[in-house]
């Protein structure tokens, strides 16, 4: 593609002189600012403008302003032409976006050198932009590959729970939807606006299914026991938290190597059985010392456990479940999160009803 240079000057002589010295380039001309902007509109791929400041109808400053305001024209480089006694105009022109200036009467050799320099700079700029586009495409491709690998790994791990009838696929779907609803609601509140970014919320939703992954290490006679666990059995059951965290830590060589979503997953797995009053496990954390993913997962997991049938209990009705959860505000659950949960409880109930009903329909078919 040839280099395009626009020469804008109300002096016909100067236009002809400059055009004659630029025979190696494709040149366009304009006698004033109005005509210049019309030429630029038809040729937005212009590389360089040689711009006289003192012109009728629309002067050079106005042209510079118009170029600067239009995003399509911002890559155009401009050299301004000034008179020897117009130092203030030179400064103003540079402030408005010009990359260089040359004074009249024209020193043709000097102007040609400067034009060649800026054409080379523009060429280098194009090469850098093209390289950046290629790099962006490579990064996007790698990002998609990493995301696909992450999702496949999560689905494979959760699949182990479903194979052993530890969790149903609908439990996974429900908890993910509830996490999404709860996070999107909480981030409208001042204390969560800067924390629950779009990327972080997506991480929370994606890693929610891993909260009980450690249960694959618990014996079936405890995990699937229809009655209440003995104290000794419960101690074994509690180990599923450490099993899950350890599974995620196995391939971590240093903290610097830990992907963000793994850190989020570890906080969900490791802290979703902690209680706000400090009576939870495995570390007995309390209050805001419990990582936010754990505090969110705690209320989501308990709600779904209450409203779903399990091997050891029937499903509780919605109103009863909500009453129990309210009573645990400040004890089991973070009061701020309980408040947010209750504000969208009807939407959460819709999720529970939707995926439970779909399960029944699928069974009948």
From TrEMBL:
<feature type="domain" description="Response regulatory">
    <location>
        <begin position="4"/>
        <end position="119"/>
    </location>
</feature>
<keyword id="KW-0597">Phosphoprotein</keyword>
<dbReference type="InterPro" id="IPR011006">
    <property type="entry name" value="CheY-like_superfamily"/>
</dbReference>
<dbReference type="InterPro" id="IPR037522">
    <property type="entry name" value="HD_GYP_dom"/>
</dbReference>
<dbReference type="InterPro" id="IPR003607">
    <property type="entry name" value="HD/PDEase_dom"/>
</dbReference>
<dbReference type="InterPro" id="IPR001789">
    <property type="entry name" value="Sig_transdc_resp-reg_receiver"/>
</dbReference>
<feature type="domain" description="HD-GYP">
    <location>
        <begin position="146"/>
        <end position="357"/>
    </location>
</feature>
<dbReference type="GO" id="GO:0000160">
    <property type="term" value="P:phosphorelay signal transduction system"/>
</dbReference>
<comment type="function">
    <text>May play the central regulatory role in sporulation. It may be an element of the effector pathway responsible for the activation of sporulation genes in response to nutritional stress. Spo0A may act in concert with spo0H (a sigma factor) to control the expression of some genes that are critical to the sporulation process.</text>
</comment>
<feature type="modified residue" description="4-aspartylphosphate">
    <location>
        <position position="52"/>
    </location>
</feature>
<dbReference type="Pfam" id="PF00072">
    <property type="entry name" value="Response_reg"/>
</dbReference>
<dbReference type="Pfam" id="PF13487">
    <property type="entry name" value="HD_5"/>
</dbReference>
<protein>
    <recommendedName>
        <fullName>Stage 0 sporulation protein A homolog</fullName>
    </recommendedName>
</protein>
<dbReference type="InterPro" id="IPR052020">
    <property type="entry name" value="Cyclic_di-GMP/3'3'-cGAMP_PDE"/>
</dbReference>
């Amino acid at each position: 593609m040839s280099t395009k240079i626009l020469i804008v000057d109300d002096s016909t002589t100067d236009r002809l002189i400059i055009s004659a010295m630029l025979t190696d380039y494709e040149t366009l001309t304009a006698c004033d600012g109005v005509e210049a902007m019309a030429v630029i509109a038809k040729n937005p791929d212009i590389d360089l403008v040689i711009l006289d400041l003192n012109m009728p109808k629309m002067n050079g400053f106005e042209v510079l302003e118009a170029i600067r305001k239009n995003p399509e024209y911002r890559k155009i480089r401009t050299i301004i032409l000034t008179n020897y006694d117009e130092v203030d105009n030179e400064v103003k022109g540079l402030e408005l976006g010009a990359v260089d200036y040359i004074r009249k009467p024209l020193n043709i050799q000097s102007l040609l050198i400067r034009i060649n320099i800026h054409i080379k700079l523009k060429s280098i700029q194009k090469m850098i932009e093209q390289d950046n586009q290629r790099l962006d495409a490579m990064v996007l491709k790698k990002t998609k590959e990493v995301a696909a690998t992450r999702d496949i790994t999560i689905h494979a791990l959760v699949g182990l729970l479903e194979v052993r009838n530890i969790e149903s696929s609908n439990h996974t779907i429900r908890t993910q939807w509830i996490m999404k609803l709860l996070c999107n609601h909480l981030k409208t509140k001042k204390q969560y606006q800067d924390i629950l970014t779009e990327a972080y919320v997506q991480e929370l939703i994606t890693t929610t299914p891993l909260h009980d992954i450690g249960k694959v290490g618990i014996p079936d006679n405890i995990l699937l026991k229809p009655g209440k666990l003995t104290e000794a059995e419960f101690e074994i059951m509690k180990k599923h938290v450490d099993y899950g965290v350890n599974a995620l830590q196995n391939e971590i060589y240093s903290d610097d190597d830990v992907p963000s979503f793994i850190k989020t997953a570890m906080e969900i797995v490791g802290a979703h059985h902690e209680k706000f009053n400090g009576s939870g496990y495995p570390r007995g954390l309390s209050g805001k010392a419990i990582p936010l993913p754990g505090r969110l997962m705690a209320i989501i997991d308990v709600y779904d456990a209450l409203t779903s049938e399990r091997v050891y209990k029937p499903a509780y009705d919605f109103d009863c479940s909500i009453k129990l959860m309210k009573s645990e505000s400040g004890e089991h659950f973070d009061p701020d999160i309980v408040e947010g949960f209750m504000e969208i409880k009807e939407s959460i109930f819709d999720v529970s009803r939707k995926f439970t009903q779909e399960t029944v329909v699928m069974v009948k078919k």
